Predict the structure.
Amino acid sequence: MQQLTDAFARKFYYLRLSITDVCNFRCTYCLPDGYKPNGHNNKSFLSLDEIRRVSRAFANLGTEKVRLTGGEPSLRRDFTDIIAAVRENPQIRHLAVTTNGYRLARDITQWRDAGLTALNVSVDSLDARQFHAITGQDKFREVMSGIDAAFDAGFEKVKVNAVLMRDVNHNSLQTFLNWIKDRPIQLRFIELMETGDGGSLFRKHHVSGQVIRDQLVQQGWTLMGRSRSDGPAQVFTHPDYIGEIGLIMPYEKDFCATCNRLRVSAVGNLHLCLFGEQGIPLRDLLADDQQQEALMARIQGGLGRKKQTHFLHQGNTGMTQNLSFIGG
Ligand SMILES: Nc1nc2c(ncn2[C@@H]2O[C@H](COP(=O)(O)OP(=O)(O)OP(=O)(O)O)[C@@H](O)[C@H]2O)c(=O)[nH]1
Ligand SMILES: C[S@@+](CC[C@H](N)C(=O)[O-])C[C@H]1O[C@@H](n2cnc3c(N)ncnc32)[C@H](O)[C@@H]1O
Ligand code: SF4
Ligand code: SF4
């Protein structure tokens, strides 16, 4: 087996697999007008067998972690079967999902039993009204009980994502800190990223994670190390807190130097970067088991075209209109 490696000697251990574009939330920074079908109907998202084949190919190329994302991945009726199918590969030791949390309370035990090992939930505000205003859904309490249900189901840690927005939640650090003081939650502030649809929101609300980092350091938080299949967050800990704080700062210098992940969209295109071009079609090689070698060769070959960084500083968001179609 040859580990996936690009022209800049970065190695790829982590696949982010989108399984649907559909979402039931309308987050202001992602799908402010809600999900609109984009030329393909729901049936055209990767089938369970196609997901099985693509995850097998990546597993054989050294992938040790897969994240299921979307749209809202838990909207797939076969979501539990998808978890089990990806876990058929023993090389994939970590299987995570990123979710808006609306199905957690009902289904998390089932997902864990099927082989889910890690959970990231998006919660931009701890104020129910503000949560509603940001997501378009009055479901703060349901999502909170979903997180409790995850601990009850045996998850030792839950990661929570909050998109950092000026004049929305950028002054809420203390509220989040109080929340994680006695809870094993890694609360991550994600810098708002510009997308094709989100230019004006970005200009209005983008704020650097530096404002949070300065406060953390001042209060005695310290930076932890990262392992090879971790996401890009800088993670901080503090002796008085059970929880942790993560900062995802894609505009910071050298953010892309440690890129360790590739993406496959819900229609089966390989994306070399979150802000890249159209993607390399894999789907014609996912129809049966006979084409695994060709599939692996195409993934490996495509990787040669991966660029060193994103081009967000130049205002170039690639073809990424919003993050729902590729899963962030
Ligand atoms: N620019 C950029 N942003 C990323 C990248 N990976 C993750 N992000 C951002 O971080 C958000 C949160 O990612 P998650 O899905 O929670 O997972 P993660 O933090 O990457 O990974 P884990 O460490 O596995 O939990 C994504 O939705 C993106 O907004 C990346 O490679 N590039
Ligand atoms: C696209 S969503 C998909 C999974 C699921 N629907 C959810 O919201 O967790 C993945 C992550 O992307 C983040 N995200 C979406 N648009 C973003 C943007 N413009 N800038 C930064 N993060 C964004 C969301 O907050 C969420 O944590
Ligand atoms: S961030 Fe997630 S929950 Fe919010 S609209 Fe986008 S895909 Fe849906
Ligand atoms: S922006 Fe692109 S190159 Fe940079 S870390 Fe993210 S996926 Fe990798």
